[in-house]
Design a protein that fits this description.
The chain is α/β, with parallel strands linked by helices. The chain has 2 domains: 207 residues, Rossmann fold (3-Layer(aba) Sandwich), CATH 3.40.50; 62 residues, Orthogonal Bundle (Helicase, Ruva Protein, domain 3), CATH 1.10.8.100. It is 42% helix and 18% strand. It is built from 13 helices and 9 strands. A 7-stranded mixed sheet has the order 4-3-2-5-6-9-7, sandwiched between helices.
Length: 282
């Protein structure tokens, strides 16, 4: 199977007369070695059903099919969505291994689309080179609304990767850390240089693996509201931002110092604070 290099991508862009669209975050991976590493991390065995977000010209799609995956690709760019399967067949992809849903992944009923293909498998993997500006909303939407997805292997901006894998007490921990960590464990796999993309972005990327795990028993919506409020003024102590909802006794019951700042807390602490808040409201 012929994977895509930089010359292939530039030629395809010219053939389609369709320059990369910055509004859609289109930076196409032009290094077969990189997409093969992503595919190897995402596809443990042949036949694995994969949801690919934003396949673009099919760089990663080809590598996923090469690994034996069956791919459902969601593509917002209407022309690329229409052209993807014929282009892949011309590069040697077997027929019937890739299906395309045209639309914005943030608006597509992913749970319904995967349920319609339940014969592909009971659980799914996400593999994607995500648009930088919407990477976190896409990840959170999948974790929150598509339970059959058990893991994600995604390429994101390096700074976003740092936030996803951060631990309490560090400078990079933030809202994405806690919200992704509520449902999953994230780890950084490798860094991707800007030079492997066409067009070349101004930032470095990284590939992150996110594996679903059982969430805390505490109320998710209450927890996320607390996190948002505290990080909205992250330099302030928790007693100043969420103290009214938790109360002095609540901080003590949760084992959290009211003088702490949000970056000092992990998922477990936010779950205990949530239980306190819910208990006070009942």
């Amino acid at each position: 199977m012929r994977l895509l290099g930089a010359a292939d991508i530039r030629a395809r862009i010219e053939e389609l007369d369709h320059p990369a669209r910055r509004s859609l975050g289109q930076n196409f991976v032009a290094d077969p070695g990189v997409v093969r590493r992503v595919a190897a991390a995402a596809v443990p065995e042949a036949g694995t059903p994969v949801l690919e977000v934003g396949p673009g010209l099919g760089s990663l799609t080809l590598a996923l099919v090469e690994r034996g995956a069956r791919v459902l690709a969601v593509e917002q760019d209407e022309l690329l969505a229409t052209e993807l399967v014929p282009w892949l067949l011309g590069r040697g992809a077997p027929a019937g291994r890739v299906e395309v849903v045209a639309g914005d992944v943030l608006g597509v009923d992913l749970a319904g689309a995967l349920a319609e293909r339940s014969d592909w498998g009971a659980t799914w993997v996400v593999a994607a080179n995500l648009p930088y500006h919407v990477a976190v909303p896409i990840i959170l939407g999948i974790l929150g609304r598509v339970p059959v997805v058990t893991s994600l292997v995604v390429m994101v901006q390096s700074e976003v990767a740092d936030r996803l894998v951060a631990t309490p007490g560090g400078r990079t921990i933030g809202v994405p850390t806690i919200k992704v960590g509520w449902d999953a464990a994230a780890r950084r796999l490798f860094t991707v240089d800007a030079a492997v993309f066409v067009p070349r972005p101004r930032v470095t990327s990284a590939v992150v693996e996110i594996v679903r795990r059982p969430p805390p028993a505490a109320d998710r919506s209450v927890a996320f509201a607390l996190v948002d409020r505290a990080y909205g003024q992250r330099r302030k102590m928790l007693r100043s931002t969420i103290g009214e909802r938790v109360g002095a006794e609540g901080f003590a019951a949760a084992g959290v110092a009211p003088t702490a700042r949000p970056e000092e807390l992990g998922v477990a602490e936010w779950a205990r604070l949530t239980e306190v808040v819910v208990g006070r409201a009942s």
